[in-house]
Amino acid sequence: MPLLDVRDLVVEFPTRHGTLTAVDSVSFTVDKGERLGIVGESGAGKSVAAFAILNLLSRPGRIGGGSITFEGRDLTKLNRQQMRSVRGNRISMIFQDPMMTLNPVLTIGTQMVETLKAHRDISDAEAKRIAIARLGEVKIPSPENRMASYPHELSGGMRQRVVIAIALLTEPALIIADEPTTALDVTIQAEIMSLMLALCKTHGVGLILITHDLAVVSQVTQRVVVLYAGRVVETGQTARVVHDPVHPYTRGLLAALPGEGTPGARLNQIRGGMPSLNAIPEGCAFHPRCDFVQDRCRAAVPPLDDFDGHRVRCVRADDLIAGAAA
Where is the ABC transporter domain positioned along the sequence (predicted)? Predict the structure, then answer.
């Protein structure tokens, strides 16, 4: 049984003009200790899917269908108190901006001790000992002294290390990291991702990494899910998806990486933009931006076909795999 099994998840936002579907029948699994990447542009539905797992959807957002089974329990059926025993305890989340996560008026130590005591019946002294140990694990120098620091006294990279330490406090089975390095410079990004990878391996923690950067995904994850307009368009082993992408959208994301362009030339880009939720095209949602579009692409939503464990939602998948598409 997978650690996490998301099946046919639908997330909706009712509005006065009708119900908008942000996540449309998305399915994926995460095994114990496995690292899964969820990739796509802004508006693809990555973060909404993650928030649905932890029941953190902002109103009027709601789960409109499907199931989210974690450690044998369907999280969509838990009440608020039962969900508190999972959120921040068995499943931790790391958000984009640590300054939005950390309380600016409380010391790092106070926040870490309070987090532990909210989920465990332990003394202040034991909670402090665990907190200092976790700060040391994330390579924060002089962790005993940093316990007395306030968030604004730390650099962006140090704040994100603190957030990672907090995520590990309760020894969770799964961590969801929502673009955890977006606000950091490139060298610090690499350090943070390397640290997260090492910690997940050391603790045997499952990881869902949400990002728009396939280069990061290729270095950290074992499997990847590519989302477009709320639907899965390609999924499989990370190495296979990155080295042999099939869906035109995945190909476009990879071609847009800086290393794929000609030095001195403009970067490659996918023409157009992600459709808004109230204007998702009929058929394949990607067809207005696709270089391989045919009339049948506009007719109906393609199925997610399986090619020996590599699943692709494209009516021209066979042609693209064979290199015969034009």
Answer: 4-254
Q: Does residue 97 fall inside a structural domain?
A: no
Q: Is the peptide bond before 60 cis (omega within 30 degrees of 0)?
A: yes
For residue range 67-99, list pLDDT tens digits in order: 999 999 999 999 988 998 899 899 999 988 777
12: tokens are 């909706």
Angle separating helix axes 124-137 and 108-119, nearest 10 degrees: 120
pLDDT in tens, 126-136: 999 999 999 99
Report the C-alpha gap between 313 and 230 in whole angstroms. Answer: 13
* CB-based burial, 124-158: b 16+ in 10 Å, e otherwise: eeebbebbbebbebbebeebeebbebebeebebbb
Distance of CA 34 to the CA centre of its chain: 13
Task: Say if residue 163 is exposed, middle or buried (CB neighbours under 10 Å; 0-12, 13-18, 19+).
Answer: buried
Q: How far apart are the first and last CA of the chain?
A: 42
User: Given 169, 185, 210, which residue is the final one in a domain?
Assistant: 169
Encoding tokens for residue 113? 């001790």
Q: Please report which confidence band the pLDDT of residue 325 belongs to, taking 50, 70 and 90 as the band edges.
A: low
Place of tokens 């109906």: 300
State which residues form the domain around 130: 102-169
